[in-house]
Amino acid sequence: xxxxxxxxxxxxxxxxxxxxxxxxxxxxxxxxxxxxxxxxxxxxxxxxxxxxxxxxxxxxxxxxxxxxxxxxxxxxxxxxxxxxxxxxxxxxxxxxxxxxxxxxxxxxxxxxxxxxxxxxxxxxxxxxxxxxxxxxxxxxxxxxxxxxxxxxxxxxxxxxxxxxxxxxxxxxxxxxxxxxxxxxxxxxxxxxxxxxxxxxxxxxxxxxxxxxxxxxxxxxxxxxxxxxxxxxxxxxxxxxxxxxxxxxxxxxxxxxxxxxxxxxxxxxxxxxxxxxxxxxxxxxxxxxxxxxxxxxxxxxxxxxxxxxxxxxxxxxxxxxxxxxxxxxxxxxxxxxxxxxxxxxxxxx
Length: 348
Ligand SMILES: *Cc1c(COP(=O)(O)O)cnc(C)c1O
Fold this sequence. Notes:
- The chain has 13 helices and ten strands.
- It is of the alpha/beta class.
- Helix 1 (18-26) packs across helix 10 (242-254).
């Protein structure tokens, strides 16, 4: 058996879903204009406009780090700052790329329960210093769902939007798992983005089932001025753009983006329910999308690793993250659960 076939480390360990692959193959007939001047790119960008019910500007990048960094750089001058949660990917997992791309815009870190910024925390940071010696707050960055697998409700988003309005801040949304948020919240993509004040969204295709590719969507079109040049300069303009845009169209047009997300969320819910049945197992954060964060005894973690299960434990001592994706299977979840039960029984 191949232990690496189905895992719980990340949704970017999964493969390409059939719909994305099918459209990639379709786009591989003959030649097409380069640099995004092809019909796949036109169709995919039009589809985003339809999906979000607004005339937005759409760009594509190779990965999430580039999408986040370049979009933040578009919202900031080098003397500005970006308010984000201390666990935000832009802070912890992008090797300083947001600061690099923006020529030094500083990230200001806020704390907040369950990985979420609050309107109060944002306001406290904005008011902490208002003098010339401190980088001027310009952007609020929120991750939906958060790095801890939780969701901002519409009410929470709207409260943040009000603070943004009060202090003239822009809102950036890291949507690495945006599809999972839409699926879990039962709200339209428009409702949880521009209608809740989001100026720019980084919508991740990779974790949703593509080989690679992120859509950067500017709802506030004036912020997208010359963004195509910024992408090109950063080495993020794909010459064979159709192999990013065609699979995107595949996800969108067939509904696979939501199907994949809904399925991954359901898998996480299943895993959560079964884990809660096991004595000695405790959830760390509310399970709201496709990630399950659970406290397991050290010896159980060792035992799972010895059996070659793949998962992250970066969240602190005893904390384990199990991430579900479009290709998670029930049989693998059941095997994982059996191994957890066996390891716990051994330790008692
Ligand atoms: C995966 C992820 C990204 C993108 O990461 P890349 O490796 O650069 O594609 C961005 N934000 C969050 C929250 C993520 O989980």
